[in-house]
Amino acid sequence: MSTTNERQQELAIDMKAGMDYDELMNCMRCGFCLPSCPTYRESGGNEAASPRGRIALMKAVVDGIMEPDEDFEKQLSLCLGCRACEPACPSGVKYGHLLEAARDIIQKKKKHSLPVRMVRSLVFNQLFPKPNRMRTVSSLLWFYQKTGIQKIAQATHLTKIAPGNLSIMEKVLPQVPSPSQLKNRPTHVAAEGKVKQKVAFFSGCLMDTMFMDTNDATLFILSKSNCEIVIPEKQNCCGALHAHSGEKDGAKALAKENILAFENVKADFIVSNAGGCGALLVEYGHLLKDDPEWAERAKVFSARVKDISEILLAVGMPKMVLDEQIVTYQDSCHLRNVMGTFSAPRRLLQQIEGVTFTEMKDADRCCGSAGVYNIIEQEMSMQILDVKMEQAKATKARTLVTANPGCLLQMKLGIERAGLQKDVRAVHIVDLLAEAVKKGE
Amino acid sequence: MIHQDAKKKFTAIVGEVNYLDSKQSLVAYSYDATPNYQALPDAVIKPRNTKEVSEIVKVCNEYKIPIVPRGNATNLCAGTCPLEGGLVMIFTLMNEIIELDEENLTVTVQPGLITLDMINAVEAKGLFYPPDPSSMKISTIAGNINEGSGGLRGLKYGVTRDYVIALEVVLPNGNIIRTGGKLAKDVAGYDFTRLMVGSEGTLGIITEATFKLIPKPETKKTMLALYDSLEAAGRTVSKIIANKIIPTTLEFLDQPTIRVVEDFAKIGLPTDVGAVLLIEQDGPLEVVERDIKRMAEICQEENALSVQIAQTDEEGTALTTARRSALSALARLKPTTILEDATVPRSKIAEMVREIEVIAKRNNVQICTFGHAGDGNLHPTCMTDARDKEEMHRVEKAFEEIFEKAIQLGGTITGEHGVGVMKSPYLAWKLGEEGVEAMKTLKMAFDPNNIMNPGKMFAKETRKRVVVSR
Ligand SMILES: Cc1cc2nc3c(=O)[nH]c(=O)nc-3n(C[C@H](O)[C@H](O)[C@H](O)COP(=O)(O)OP(=O)(O)OC[C@H]3O[C@@H](n4cnc5c(N)ncnc54)[C@H](O)[C@@H]3O)c2cc1C
Ligand code: SF4
Ligand code: SF4
């Protein structure tokens, strides 16, 4: 028997043991989720590339109808994990949980080549979960260029990265703060006026390094809106990248650290300003549901998490002004589909004087960024992105707003690809709000 | 297994990329929305036009390869489950609107077009296509035609059958025929158009369809009436019709269904009432207002607990959308959801629903009922778990009793979902042995090699009528 066959058999056994069969059965195969799925649409209506199809494939593996062959792994890998299928599902199937579980099982059985192992270990073990390293590695940009990820990628065909795209990627990365800026992060910010709300800020790993300006802007507008902010020092990366890449154990470990960090902080809410992080934070309850010591604590933690836009809308913003312009908004999938936040950011943008808010067609559809999807599944990602750019262009917007760092980079990449750099800019919503507050003063 | 020569011929017709036989593709096209049915085809094929369909069918006929035409597999009778293997034929590459004829008020489309896409295109021109199955967001036109699908507006406007006026069909021998036309009057020979409606892919493959359209109603109003008893709701239905009002929509939900729908849609439905009627009228403003007012009075006269008229379009849409999600919302309760569509004359609705309750209790199974009160089309829906063989047996028994009762009351075994595999054992209950025999003769005349969706509609074994002890 060949080794691939053995591996597939082992994988099948693990899938049988590890997948939630009730959840697989809960899919009644009504097909209501199909129209909302980007990969289904972009594949010209391929059932296997749809949520209903992928659930059927997972179930077929568990039922022993199908081997977990390479095609199967590819199909799961092609899924963006955008979870647009979940709000569309009247049966309430937790597709995201099924996908994460399957990817986790596949990942554990995977025999990566040495360079891939090195990169994964660097990213998942050495870098993201180590706040100090995130900081001392003075920037991700540095990481991209100096660790030779580009060379490894090319040498191993790990990513199928077209060199052209990588160089655009580098162009769209933000200006990175200096190491000294990175060292002196605040732990408490007072409200400017009378305290309306006391919040604990989840600062994130990428957000607190590469996107530090956005975090500073967040603290600025929270304070301007009379929120008192605590920023627990012991917090860590949220673990979303781990969870979505099948590194569930890593994600769990990080979740526990964060629960500990926030548990005794007296605050009404835990604020997140990145859709991708927030969505995992609200799912800690699910992530740790089988851990008796942590399940309840995780649930309590998750219940306190709120997106920045919801908080700002509730407490009220100071006067905001911008130059006359059209602004449009691209939903962060996880913010919308998992956290359920979609009207708050739009309403905030509408409150800015001078701004004409124009909704773009299919704003709720994934932009193709999806964690590291745009690197791993580059072809599909770029296909999705180019459609998105057409739709953004049609709004005639000068500013394209997002609510998650991954989406922001992807939008910037899209703008470059479409040659719109002169007319359109992409910004994180809190950066735009901060800009508008300053101009309104 | 598909013969190598046949495969070569297929790929020569549609090209390598449109012939799929990886394990993954076979699994992905092995099921439809019917619980508990799954069978792998031998291959999946995507024709690009009528000519290719015809050529494929000729090869199938030569090699006796079964063909299962598949829309988007939302049917609930296992109609697209490839029980005998063969080719699943999908129409994702044939989904265009061919012509929207505003002079003749018709629209001509390809089979794979999504129902809602057609409705949107038509409404953009101020026209109206009334059939609106709850699955329209994803169901295809050819699927609708082949199941004879109905929807919430069926009471006033009729169902798919009432709007199909012309078809292009590839027969099982590969011949291409055209039936009907853009004509209001046409009696040239047998009515093949009507014959194809509801034929469930057993007589031929539809490759083009023309529908008649009507002007879009100017206004629409929705209201919701709550009752503490089902009888009162039933009486309201009869009285509305007796008052010579035909509302667009007259839907009802029983109590367990209300609870689940509210849990899903969160639109503020009260969960402690006995039954809910969802009523809609459309047309000129004066007529709509007059009818809604009168119907509200009738609801009050029949002791409705409350009558609430939606103030805005959004409110109205929220109510109908919630009703549309009833089936899927019920699916949240248990892993397996089995939905039937027994239909009775509308005067018998309350009696039928009561009987369903009794039958469910007697067999110790959980059944919720909702449906189209206006046309007597009920959806008794059973929440169960297919892994529990013993319970599944009781579920089957309960449904048998429900069909039995429906027929006793002058009804039928299926009002809109079709016979497929699910209800084939019961077809003779409705048609009689002679009726089934006549239908089989017809099928054999069209398809002597039985390649078109074999195993559907006609069961290998007909269910003997159960004797229900009372
Ligand atoms: C949640 C839910 C709600 C539903 N609500 C309703 C409702 O309100 N009213 C209603 O009537 N039904 C309803 N249905 C049932 C189903 O959606 C309809 O029967 C629908 O018309 C099927 O369309 P489809 O495109 O999915 O066809 P499929 O399920 O793919 O096929 C249906 C039949 O058509 C045949 N067929 C498909 N294409 C062709 C072709 N080109 N030529 C010949 N034969 C073909 C197939 O062989 C099969 O027998 C519902 C189903 C679900 C899951
Ligand atoms: S909408 Fe939900 S139940 Fe329906 S097919 Fe998709 S996942 Fe399954
Ligand atoms: S998560 Fe997104 S890409 Fe994946 S199946 Fe759901 S809708 Fe499709």
From TrEMBL, chain A:
Alphabetically sorted, this entry's keywords are: 4Fe-4S, Electron transport, Iron, Iron-sulfur, Metal-binding, Repeat, Transport
Q: Which reaction does it catalyse?
A: (R)-lactate + A = pyruvate + AH2; glycolate + A = glyoxylate + AH2
Instruction: Provide the top EC class.
Output: oxidoreductase
An example of a GO molecular function for this protein is: metal ion binding
Q: Could you confirm whether the keyword Transcription regulation appears in this record?
A: no
Domain 4Fe-4S ferredoxin-type as annotated: residue spans? 17-47, 70-93
Write down what this protein is called.
Glycolate oxidase iron-sulfur subunit
TrEMBL record, chain B:
The cofactors it requires, by name, are:
FAD
Chain ranges of the FAD-binding PCMH-type domain: 37-216
Pfam family of this protein, just one?
A: FAD_binding_4
Instruction: Select a single GO molecular function from the record's annotations and give it.
Output: (S)-2-hydroxy-acid oxidase activity
**Classification via SUPFAM superfamilies:** FAD-binding/transporter-associated domain-like (SSF56176), FAD-linked oxidases, C-terminal domain (SSF55103)
Q: Which InterPro entries match?
A: FAD-bd_oxidored_4_C, FAD-bd_PCMH, FAD-bd_PCMH-like_sf, FAD-bd_PCMH_sub2, FAD-linked_Oxase-like_C, FAD-linked_OxidoTrans_Type4, GlcD, Oxid_FAD_bind_N
Put simply, this protein is called Glycolate oxidase subunit GlcD
Q: Where are the transmembrane segments?
A: none
Q: What GO cellular component is one of the record's annotations?
A: glycolate oxidase complex
The record's keywords, sorted A to Z, are: FAD, Flavoprotein, Oxidoreductase
Q: Which organism is it from?
A: Anaerobacillus alkaliphilus
Q: Which family does it belong to?
A: Belongs to the FAD-binding oxidoreductase/transferase type 4 family.
Carries keyword Nucleotide-binding? no
